[in-house]
Design brief:
heterodimer, A: 345 residues, mainly alpha, two-stranded antiparallel sheet, two-stranded antiparallel ribbon, B: 449 residues, 16 helices, globular
Chain lengths: 345, 449
């Protein structure tokens, strides 16, 4: 079996996919989070500023979803195929909401009529909310497992079966985390009264997040038995929840000092640590079967051939630095507060 | 209706709708590069106005292209799970390469392109335009490579059997440069250039008819007409190359394109016609032995016909393949005559005086659009019953666990969303065209509120 630094290719690709989805959560978390504050702003001008805060960035941020999806398809086709077809209805809703969201950004400010803008505002808010919630629901189902039988075929309900209490909790926590993340980002981008309002909203969202996260954590420890076993088996990894909690604790501290950029870094780190926890809990399983462990989808039975993974790793090694350069250039071009001009949304 | 047919309808509908937009992005992208390049070179303010005007239209088109494209990326998994497991090793790597090398480039530079006018220098802005254009070109490369592999698989071997059978890559470059990919990429690029150039021609012909924005429309018309003329002509050769490849690698598809049934006999080339699949007969106007001549340069050469294949191994919708293929060819011919004649008039200095020519051009935007769609329908319906040519049938590729009700739900969902999206697209396009390429006032938007 081919390895790099003693790590086999499927494991390496597991890291790549984890990295890409962390990037997706961090970057699109900004956009979805900002979008969920939309209806909290009363004035049209504030809503426009909030949209233009992500205006030049959201198209680029979306790249991480596209690359993440491609990486999943290419590296773990079995997971890609089974997860998407099993969770058909949630994913179709997710995709539909993505279309609504992009349309709202593009068309909202294209007309001056009040009814037009208000309609798009509601669509924009709901789509961001549902997207975030559904992402959390999918994550919850990954942790809990779904009814997989042989040949990786799903044998369960269509939609409601994905809304287990646990999945609803992960959904709500994701919404809360993105809202906090988005509020910090908007604070970096706004001034004046909108800024003042956001400092107030951010404090609320930190409370919302810490509450929902605490409930989720307790629920996880009590109801997901394998979690405790995992840590007993690999006690060293207990450092992960500690890091996650420390970085969460750091956010209100930095916010109270108005160090929003650092706060944004720590909310990003929080996302990464939480995803690492999920990865640690699952590895090497990708999709748990609640019917029998022999039907689990793992990084080994889901992976593409070694040859293909080798090619993909090469592609990723060339492509990722390029993406980083593009992003540095883009974010550097649009750093600082939002300035509205003729080209704005 | 069963899951297979519903999934096929959904895929055809979502991909056909999606395919309105990326070719326009590529084609208008090329025009933007030309307009902005001319602005940098000449310093003529009119070119800047043109660039900004077309950029506004480009932004809508690009946006809808991305939104509908993301759905395509995930629809393989949702509706075609068996297919996805079968080809992931190969098809997935092409998609991932598209994301990293193409989509990443176009989407990051798009922000600079749309919102960076006051933040970067004109040269950096031009480089961003170039980045977006090249990104969209690369995008086409990887997507067409993936599709071409389905048409003419290469550089792979099949591992396992039954449900666990997979295609695995053995030679990456052989997979990328499979027999049909280079020619099909060129064919798709040129189709995209035509889509964009004719859209520019169409809008500016409309202005000239209305007697509005005359100077700037002359300026825009000329490079667009040059692009349209060149690529209408080269598309003929590229089309011929593609047909040769189909003859070599997918004889059943070629036979369906011309409604040729007899297992081994000289085949006719039809200008138009109607295929009766039951009677295995084509009624129409054709050149006897024409297809034999095109493929083998001999009117009496044998061409493999549909009857050389078992009924279950050949396309069943022969008339549809025939019609789509002939629509594409006919439009290609019309574009050649139209652009050559217009170029001749331009050379004689009489082009803009011919009102009827401008009227034709005003509607010409539809022609490459229809040809692009028809070409893809011919290519994909002609590939049936295979989803991966010779290896996996479409009827084996769909998701086993998805029910007909679920697909019906998503089909209706996308039907409604895409209809709304299309209306919005037409509405905002119309609005931008009515507004026109007028001078740039920094305060205009503030004044509107």
């Amino acid at each position: 079996m081919a390895t790099i630094l003693g790590i086999d290719y499927p494991t390496l690709w597991f890291f790549v996919v984890g990295f890409l989805f962390s990037g997706y959560a961090i970057l699109e978390g900004l956009d979805y989070g900002a979008g969920m504050w939309h209806l909290f702003f009363q004035k049209d001008e504030s809503r426009r500023i909030a949209i233009n805060a992500i205006g030049p960035l959201w198209d680029a941020n979306q790249v991480w979803l596209v690359i993440g999806g491609g990486a999943l398809f290419a590296g773990f086709p079995v997971l890609y195929a089974t997860m998407l077809s099993a969770m058909y209805v949630p994913f179709m809703l997710f995709l539909a909401m993505l279309v609504f969201r992009s349309s709202a950004i593009k068309f909202r400010s294209a007309e001056p009529m009040l009814w037009w803008r208000k309609t798009w505002d509601i669509i924009y808010f709901i789509s961001n909310l549902l997207i975030s919630f559904l992402l959390g629901v999918v994550l919850g189902n990954l942790i809990e497992g779904i009814e997989l039988k042989e040949n990786f075929v799903y044998d369960g309900g269509v939609f409601l079966s994905f809304l287990s209490p646990y999945a609803i909790l992960t959904g709500i926590t994701t919404v809360a985390l993105f809202m906090m993340h988005g509020a910090i980002f908007l604070l970096l981008k706004t001034e004046g009264r909108l800024y003042a309002k956001l400092t107030f909203l951010l404090r609320r969202s930190i409370v919302f997040f810490i509450l929902s996260f605490s409930i989720l954590s307790v629920y996880t420890i009590v109801f997901i038995e394998s979690v405790a076993d995992r840590f007993r088996e690999f006690p060293l990894f207990f450092v992960l929840p500690i890091l996650a909690l420390l970085s969460i604790a750091n956010i209100p501290r930095l916010v109270s000092k108005h160090k929003y950029f650092q706060a944004l870094i720590f909310s990003s780190l929080t996302m990464s640590f939480l995803l690492m926890l999920v990865a640690f809990q699952l590895f090497p399983v990708l999709l748990l079967s609640t019917i029998s462990p022999e039907y689990n989808i793992t990084i080994y039975n889901a992976a593409s051939s070694e040859k293909s993974l080798g090619i993909m790793l090469t592609i990723a090694a060339i492509g990722t630095p390029l993406i980083f350069i593009y992003f540095l250039f883009l974010y550097n071009t649009f750093k600082g507060k939002v300035i509205m001009d003729d080209d704005s949304y | 209706m069963d899951v297979e047919i519903l999934s096929r309808i959904q895929f055809a509908f979502t991909i056909a709708f999606h395919y309105i937009f990326p070719p326009l992005s590529i084609g208008i992208g090329l025009m933007l590069v030309i307009f902005e390049g001319m602005f940098l070179k000449t310093g003529n303010k009119q070119y800047e106005i043109l660039t900004r005007f077309w950029l506004k239209i480009f932004a809508i088109i690009f946006g809808i292209g991305v939104a509908t494209g993301i759905i395509m990326e995930f629809e393989f998994g949702t509706n075609w799970a068996v297919y996805s497991r079968y080809v992931g090793d190969i098809f997935g790597s092409a998609l991932a390469a598209e994301g990293l090398f193409a989509f990443g480039l176009e989407s990051t530079f798009l922000g600079v392109l749309l919102f960076g006018w006051n933040r970067v220098s004109p040269v950096v802005h031009f480089i961003s335009t170039l980045g977006v254009f090249l990104g969209s070109m690369f995008s086409a490369v990887w997507i067409v490579v993936a599709n071409s592999w389905q048409q003419t698989p290469a550089g792979y071997h099949i591992v396992g059997d039954g449900f666990n059978a997979r295609a695995e890559v053995t030679d990456f470059w052989q997979m990328v440069f499979n027999p049909s990919s280079v020619d099909r990429v060129i064919h798709v690029w040129q189709g995209a250039f035509l889509a964009g150039a004719f859209m520019v021609l169409s809008v500016h012909a409309y202005y000239l008819l209305k007697g509005k924005h005359k100077e700037i429309s002359y300026l825009a018309f000329k490079p667009a007409l040059a692009i349209a003329t060149i690529f209408s002509l080269t598309q003929l050769f590229s089309g011929h190359r593609s047909a040769d490849l189909v003859a070599e690698h997918q004889p059943a598809k070629l036979a369906a394109m011309e409604g040729h049934y007899q297992a081994k006999s000289p085949a006719d080339l039809y200008l138009f016609g109607w295929v009766d699949n039951k009677a295995q007969k084509v009624t129409g106007l054709g050149i006897p032995g024409g297809l034999s001549f095109l493929v083998h340069q001999d009117f009496n050469a044998d061409i493999i016909g549909l009857n050389a294949y078992d009924v279950k191994d050949r396309p069943s919708q022969v008339n549809a393949v025939f019609q789509f293929y002939h629509i594409m060819i006919s439009i290609g011919m019309v574009l050649i005559f139209l652009t050559l004649y217009a170029s001749f008039l331009w050379w004689r200095g009489k082009l803009f005086e011919q009102k009827w020519m401008m009227r034709i051009f005003a509607f010409s935007v539809l022609l490459p659009q229809i040809a692009n769609q028809a070409g893809w329908f011919a290519a994909e319906m002609g590939r049936q019953p295979w989803i991966v040519y010779g290896h996996l049938r479409t009827s084996e590729g769909f998701s086993q666990e998805v029910s007909a009700q679920q697909v019906l739900f998503s089909l209706i969902l996308f039907g409604v969303i895409y209809s709304l999206l299309f209306l919005l697209f037409l509405y905002s396009l119309n609005k931008k065209i009515k507004h026109g390429p007028v001078d740039y006032h920094p305060t205009s938007k503030l004044a509107q509120q």
